[in-house]
Amino acid sequence: MLRLEDIQSARRAIAGRVHRTPLLSARTAGERVGVRLWVKAECLQKTGSFKVRGVLHRMGRLSAAERERGVVTISAGNHAQAVAWAAARAGVRATVVMPEMASPTKVRASRGYGAEVVLHGDVIAAFAKMAELQEAHGYTLIHPFDDPDVMAGQGTVGLEIVEDLPDVEVVVVPVGGGGLLAGVAAAVKALRPEARVFGVEPHGADALSRSLEAGRPVRLERVDTIADGLGAPMTGEYVLPEVRAHVDAVVRVSDDHIAAALAVLLKRTKLLVEPAGAAGYAALLAGVLDLPAEARVVVVASGGNVDLEGLGALLKRGGAGAGTSLA
Predict the structure, then answer these.
(1) To which H or E segment does residue 64 belong?
(2) Which of 25, 83, 100, 216 has the greatest number of CB atoms lying within 10 Å of its CB?
(3) Which among 201, 312, 314, 186 has a CA at the least distance from the CA of 261?
(4) Weakly modelled stretches of the chain, pLDDT under 50
(5) 72 forms bridges with which residues in the sheet?
């Protein structure tokens, strides 16, 4: 189990290499859903998402032999970019396996940072390909979520939230594999036990919800969501007990609500987030969280690596979905 000391140690390890992202007041967007709202803008983080926090911490703990052999990972994009960026700065060879339908923007960025990118099948097949390459070449896996060092790095987001808003009452976190949620919840509950922490998954990628219901990690047979950053087909053995211990609930939202949330955040906060980064606010729009009026709520805008080519369609869907108007 993660301790506060683990997360504080991770912060010291990555200090000076990541941004302390701003916690931005979003009064109008909050009034729309009846709360006092702040946005933790990890969409402004280096490489465009929170992922670099956990990757830098894990990369810093590699042995000399592991650095020599190189690292491998699997990602729809944000983790791939973070691994590519961190590996280049550490002088470590990085191979990232991405689904064939991965965002072209994220593929280009991962290659631009210096990684060897292998496109293979859907997200489930990509996991299998990654394991094959790891075994064949002796690479060290930098897991996208199910690793204590990675989760501790992601938990630094929670430290910053409580330090910047000491009376926070609710923290809402998007969920892919669950590493961000696990780390943030451990930090928030250690510093402010009375605060509630919620995870948010798309209906079409709800591995964590199903795993909690089953009492064990469950692998999805199919992932279907516009939020590619939340498309992990499973959670993990390390993530699940952290969520059980520290998270108040994990809820599901529709892609229409995610698109609507993206549109509202762009209009009202001027933050351009990707669909995954809008999931926290989507839960507020959808009304799936039982929150008191005027609660002090932080949503984590986990990433901003949106494909500009598809932005128009997302905004059009967001304007129509969930009764949202951009007028």
Answers:
(1) helix 64-69
(2) 83
(3) 314
(4) 322, 324-327
(5) 95, 141
Q: How does pLDDT run across 242-266, given as a tens digit for each residue?
A: 999 999 999 999 999 999 999 999 9
Q: Coil, strand, or helix at residue 172?
A: strand
Which entry of 51, 106, 129, 267 is annotated as an active-site residue? 51
Q: What is the pLDDT of residue 325?
A: 44
- As a whole number of angstroms, the longest Cα–Cα distance in the chain is 57
Q: What angle do CA 143, 118, 311 make, to 5 degrees?
A: 85
Q: Does the predicted TM-score (pTM) go above 0.70?
A: yes
Which CATH number characterizes residue 60's domain?
3.40.50.1100
161, 282 in Cβ contact below 8 A? no
- Same-domain status, 191 and 288: yes
Q: Name the catalytic one among 110, 211, 254, 302.
A: 302
Residues 296, 290 contacting (CB under 8 angstroms): no
The sign of the CA dihedral 210, 216, 217, 219 is negative
Task: Tell me how far CA of residue 43 lies from CA of 178, 213, 303, in angstroms.
Answer: 18, 31, 4
Radius of gyration of the chain (CA): 18
The number of CA neighbours under 13 Å toward the Cβ of 170 is 25
Q: What is the pLDDT of residue 91?
A: 96
Q: Is 211 a catalytic residue?
A: no
Domain boundary among 141, 160, 191: 141
Which pLDDT does position 326 carry in this prediction? 42
Pairing of strands 36-41, 71-74: unpaired
Q: What are phi and psi of 57, to 5 degrees?
A: -65, -45
Q: Are the C-beta atoms of 149 and 62 separated by less than 8 Å?
A: no
Domain termination site, one of 141, 172, 187: 141
Is 302 assigned a catalytic role? yes
